[in-house]
Write a structure and sequence with these properties.
Largest sheet: 3 strands, antiparallel
Number of helices: 6
Helix content: 55-70%
Distance between the termini: 32 Å
Structural class: alpha+beta
Shape: elongated
Number of strands: 3
Mean pLDDT: 88
Strand content: 15-25%
Order of helices and strands: HEHHEEHHH
Amino acid sequence: MLQPLTESELTVMELMWNSDVPIGSYEILKNTTFKGDAIGRILRNLRKRNIIRPVGTSKTIRIRTIYEPTITKAEWIVESMKDYLNTCDQDELNEISKKIENYKRSDYNA
C-alpha cells in the first residue's frame, strides 16, 4: 500500500497533475505559500518515494530541476485504496463503482 500523501505533498502533486508541462520549485513557490526549504523537502520526499521524477532543467532565476509525476491522480487514488478494495467482495466493488459513477462534486461542495 502506498504511504498517504501529506497535505503539503498533495498540494504539490495537484499542481503537477494539473500542469501540462513539468514543473519545478519556482512554479511551486509562485503557486503556494510554501517557503523554499519546505519545497525542497517536499520534492525530495516525493522523489524518494518515486512519485515524481526529474525530467530536465529550467532556467528562471537560476537553473532548477523540473519534475513530472510517475503516476496519474486516478492511479494514485486506486493504489491508495488497494488494501481496502482487496477486502471487498464483488457486490461491494460493484456498489463502490456505481457510487463513483454517480458522484457529483457539486453535491459535496454545497
